[in-house]
Write a structure and sequence with these properties.
Helix content: 25-40%
Largest sheet: 6 strands, antiparallel
Order of helices and strands: HEEEEHEEHH
Shape: globular
Structural class: alpha+beta
C-alpha cells in the first residue's frame, strides 16, 4: 500500500526537530506502512493518508477519546496499543506535532533495542533506489 509522501516528510521533519538522531531512527516497511523505529522500537508510521502511533494501552485509550482516531484492527484482532489518526486529525502542523510528542514520550519509556543483524537504514533515496532495481538484476556466470 502506498503512503502519503507529504505526511512522511512532515513526520521526518518533526522527528529531526525533536532531536531524534539518524543513528536512533530507522525507517522500515511494516503493516503496509512506512514505520519509524526510534531506538529499535516502533514509534509511529504512515499508512495511506493516516498517521499510525504506538502508545501504551492507557495512552491509546485516552487518545481514542479524541476525534479522528481509531484502533488498528486489521487482522480482526484489536491491537490495543496502535492507533490511526486520519488526515483531518493531522492537517495542522501543531496537531501532528502533538501526536508525535505523545508517541515519542511513550517510546522514551521503553528499553532501547539493538538493531538486528539484517536491519539497515532505509532512507527515502534507498527506498526509491531499491524499488527501481527490482527485477533488473542480471545473473553473472563466473567461470573458473
Amino acid at each position: 500500500m502506498a503512503f502519503d509522501e507529504g505526511l512522511v516528510d512532515r513526520v521526518r521533519t518533526i522527528l529531526h526537530a525533536r532531536r531524534v538522531t539518524r543513528a536512533a531512527l530507522l525507517e522500515k516497511r511494516m503493516f503496509g506502512a512506512l514505520v519509524f523505529m526510534v531506538n529499535g522500537n516502533m514509534c509511529c508510521g504512515v499508512r495511506g493518508t493516516e498517521l499510525m502511533l504506538r502508545l501504551s494501552g492507557e495512552g491509546a485509550a485516552k487518545a481514542l477519546r479524541k476525534p479522528h482516531t481509531r484502533l488498528v484492527d486489521e487482522t480482526g484482532k484489536r491491537m490495543k496499543t496502535l492507533i490511526f489518526i486520519n488526515e483531518r486529525g493531522t492537517d495542522l502542523d501543531h496537531e501532528l506535532e502533538a501526536w508525535l510528542d505523545v508517541a515519542l514520550q511513550f517510546n522514551s519509556t521503553m528499553q532501547p533495542k539493538a538493531p538486528s543483524a539484517t536491519a539497515r537504514q532505509r532512507t527515502p533515496t534507498a527506498l526509491h533506489r531499491d524499488e527501481s532495481r527490482r527485477g533488473t538484476r542480471k545473473r553473472v556466470r563466473h567461470e573458473a
